[in-house]
Amino acid sequence: MIRLENLTKVFETPGGTIVAADHIDMEVPEGEICILLGPSGCGKTTTLKMINRIIPPTSGKVFIGGKDTTTYDTVTLRRNMGYVIQQIGLFPNMTVEENICVVPRLLGWDGARAKRRAAELLEMMALDSAVFLKRYPKELSGGQQQRVGVARALAADPPVMLMDEPFGAVDPINREIIQDEFLKMQEKLRKTIMFVSHDIDEAVKMGDKVAIFRAGKLEQFDSPDNVLAHPANSFIADFVGGDRTLKRLRLVKVSEAMNPNAPCVRAEDSLEKAASLMAEHDQEYMVMVGPRGRARGVVYLSVAREKRGTCGEHHFGLKATVNVREDLRTAVSLMFSHDVAWLACVDEEGFFKGYITQRGITHLLGATYRDVAEGSAA
Amino acid sequence: METLVFIYENIGMILELTWRHIYLVGIAVGLAVITGVPIGIAITQNRRLADAVLYTASIIITIPSIALFGIMMPLLAPFGYGIGAVPAVIAVLLYSQLPIIRNTYVAINNVDPALREAARGMGMTSLQRLRTVEIPLAVPVIMAGVRTAVVLNIGVMAIAAYIGAGGLGTLISRGISQTDPRQLIAGALAVSILAIIADYVLLWIQHRLTPPGIKV
User: Fold this and answer.
1) By C-alpha distance, which of B10, B2, B3 is closest to B185?
2) B41 within 8 A of B106, measured Cβ to Cβ
3) Residues of A with Cβ-Cβ distance to B127 under 8 angstroms
4) This prediction's pTM
5) Nearest to B137 by CA among B104, B173, B164, B167
6) Distance between CA atoms of residues A258 and A280, nearest Å
7) How close does chain B come to A78, measured CA to CA in Å?
8) Which residue ranges form the domains of chain A, and what is each CATH number?
9) A359 neighbors A341 (Cβ within 8 angstroms)
10) What is the ipTM of this complex?
11) Do A85 and B118 touch (CB under 8 A)?
12) What pLDDT, in 10s, does the model give residues B88-147?
């Protein structure tokens, strides 16, 4: 959807020639978020700004939807792209409504339609339109201003959005919240987004693809998991951090890593039945569920072999459970804090869904290395 | 005391002179806004031009008004405008250029670069950006420049009485030549009070013209 071909920017300065962006080649499919990531001065912002020609390219082309962007005049090009900057840039002399309506009005929308759109977008941003439409930017908190900035960029419903560290000016707590809301919105809207960031955690969380830049060159362009698991060189390995495997944990949900078998016993089942189930599944523990299926406790193999009676009489409390929608980082964190090697997975209402083990998690994380090894062995 | 009696007895004449004074300053500063604001906007494009223009305007303002009137007399006399309202208005126009041009230039230059970038990135042309963002944000500072020009030139216009422009300076000049302290004091008081009132009225206008989003 967005294709950069040999995109280059060279600055002539009194101190010498600076190549800010060096023959950048990449393609972002429609509906995906591509994070441009790298340290300061690596060329990621320059590359972004060459797409809407805030910085004119020295050479190379930008194709959007297959068409060369030089065939469009600059102003028309920009009006059809959403642009969000780090400092937000809401016009202080205009109300929130007027700010959001800027591009629609430039495109000739009539007033009523533009206003309806503004109200709709505020609701999408979890801001009460009745309260916020007529407010001025100075009356908003940083997080609210940033949401309005995103709403303003979405106003004319552009297919493409360019975002330059858009959440950088927001405090970390609000940033997490806004990132989550943005991802939820993107599930519905499926815009094609180029997103500049210098934060690897943000890149891993937000991106479908990550493009790592250094000193003007594109070093690696891949999915977040691949960048973390197979960094192309030592610079990238250092940049993503020594804990990159732990960062990969964020990318997988418990439901994906869960053991698909979910054997369990009921309170009225006998200990012998529990023991034989445990032997069958090669487990030393078995979750006990209530009459409707909610996780209630655990029966241990050692107890089941020695004692006689029902599970209900000889069970222990579950130290912790994990929701199937959480990511593996949360699961591992819970395992560490309760000193267990496995957890019972439950849904929103507490119904037992399956088991997740440390062994299972490390096996899953290792799959990508085994595939590569097999690939190179073949 | 006698001054108060004098004022009371001649209130009609004093008000007429006041009106003449306001009228002349108003036209002159009005014209100065029409020339000064566009020049101020234009010079934001070019730093060297800006320096040249501001330098020229600040030199003009150092010329004492009596001297300026003296210079204009032989220049305008061939057209029949050597004395009277015309040279007065021209002098006030020239003196007003510096505060208005400089305030406009500074105000527009001081618009947050992030706003400029956001406007460009959204697809506004330079003209649209000026009209919808930069000028509304510059209005408070421009109006402050206008206020400076008006208050300054109410004093200059008082001196213009000496070249026959009329206005409240007439009372002061007559007071001096006729050694009549009543007229002198009445004239001085009137000019001062006019300046103070003008400042307040313009401050009110400035407040009305400031976009609500940036009012302090």
Assistant:
1) B3
2) no
3) none
4) 0.81
5) B104
6) 18
7) 5
8) 2-248 (3.40.50.300), 255-363 (3.10.580.10)
9) yes
10) 0.80
11) yes
12) 899 999 999 999 999 999 999 999 999 999 999 999 998 999 999 999 999 999 999 999
